[in-house]
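Input sequence (88 aa), recorded before submission:
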Amino acid sequence: MPDQELKKLLVKLHHELENTESVSVETLALVRELDADIHKLVAPSPRPEVFESVLERARLLKTQFAANHPVAERFMAQIMDSLAKMGI
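Predicted structure, token format:
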């Protein structure tokens, strides 16, 4: 169930960023990388290094969104909460 929640949150995050004009190319690239990592994470046999990269990217994005994108920051907080529920 947490993996379905993560996927839904990622869709919401992407939708929010698509409707925001002031998101940098670098931030969008980080979101795409986070998305790819989360899909690897919910695969049947995720590699241990994926756990670290997911958390690192999620923290970085949450920090970047804090000042200018409060809705995106909220989605990142929910994503991090879902990861924590999965034991990551």
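Checked by second reader. Residues 2-85 form one domain.
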